[in-house]
Model the fold of this input.
Amino acid sequence: MSRWVPFRLTACLLCLLLPGVGGATSGTAPFTPAEQRFIRESGPVTLCVDPDWPPFEHVEVRNGQARHVGIAADIIELVARRTGLSFELLPTATWEESIAAARAGRCQALSFLNQTPQREAWLGFTDPLLTDPNVFITRVEHPDITDPAALVGETIVFPQGTAMEELIRKDYPNLKVLVAESEAQAIRMVEERKADMTMRSLIVAAYTIRQQGLFNLKIAGNLPEYQNKLRMGVVRANPLLRTVLNRGIRSLTDEERRQIVNRHVPITAQTAVDYWLVGRVAAVFALLAAVVLWSNRRLKRMNAVLERLARTDPLTDLPNRTRLNDLFRREVDRAKRYRRPFSIVILDIDNFKRVNDEYGHLAGDRTLQAFAVVVRDNVRGADTVGRWGGEEFLVLCPETTAEEAAQLAERLRAATRATPFEGGRTHTVSAGVAAFHEGDDLDALLNRADAALYRAKNAGRDRVEMA
Done:
């Protein structure tokens, strides 16, 4: 005897591809006295969201009351509990209307968005709430996509106004970009052969394909550097709000994020099952699968730890010189290939040897760790900062002119001077800035930035010099 039996994959395999950011343990985030006073005295934080972006977020109306629901809503609710903040939804009809409301100051925060240079002009950004890969979606007969630059005469469709549309237009001019009104319409255009592909969030793709039954589509590839790092945007007039939100976000664990995603994107399949046969066959396969899964997971964890150790500076938890060299070479190649601006900043803590000599090497290590936090918290989302060696740090700035990189370096210099380090000491930093020129290689660009840093040191320190 057989019957239709539903099977729910509660350990969603999709979510194994979606590590969160951070790694802090769950619990209440510690706050400074100033932050505690801000939390006590501030009223509800007015929040604008995308009213139609399931499963990430949408606005649901029940009994005349608008509610923020979805993955973003659940994560932000967890942040609210960790910080003591409260949020008040400002309902809007569209995402464009939400952005306009934030620009006009009618809401203090936007809920779930990527950081872009255009948005940085008027928004400050928190650490990512969730990291989610973008994937190419095509019909099943389309070849897998390994290098989009090799595609000729193909079309790619995006919902209007997305950060990924900006990046693809810039980095892959060989693709013809089409614009749709919504996520669902973009995916339907691929299904109806009105576009060859789209690039969308893996979570949104899985949700939309399942909801609409578009099983003649497939995930054809992805670009590792094109990730959604979904953050909260905070209006520039309220920097302390961003600081408090970051403390809450850093207390979230990867497991908490996975549980929230799994609640909103379950994968359900149905098939005919003979209980008598399943009872015997499943026992054997379950035992084998458990052994294989355990072994594979253990091996993957060990490999991930080894890879991280090989590419991360153990003192500051920033990319080490090996990792920076890989990223640096890739950015130089991209600047050559697409003739796009690219700049670097070399930072050197002034008189650092005096810290080691007067206070000991442990104090020197803590100073480097504190400085790494200052730099990481003040660079832009597209930038990469790592420890180049000793007290030197390198910032890679794609899509950035020399003047823009100098402005960033000035911001880092001012932030360093304004930061109280261990024992109430203050430190300064000197910076050398250089921009990519046609014909440059990695060494030529580094030498110019190094020479600029040398001039900054000789001119009295605590200053920025451009090559």
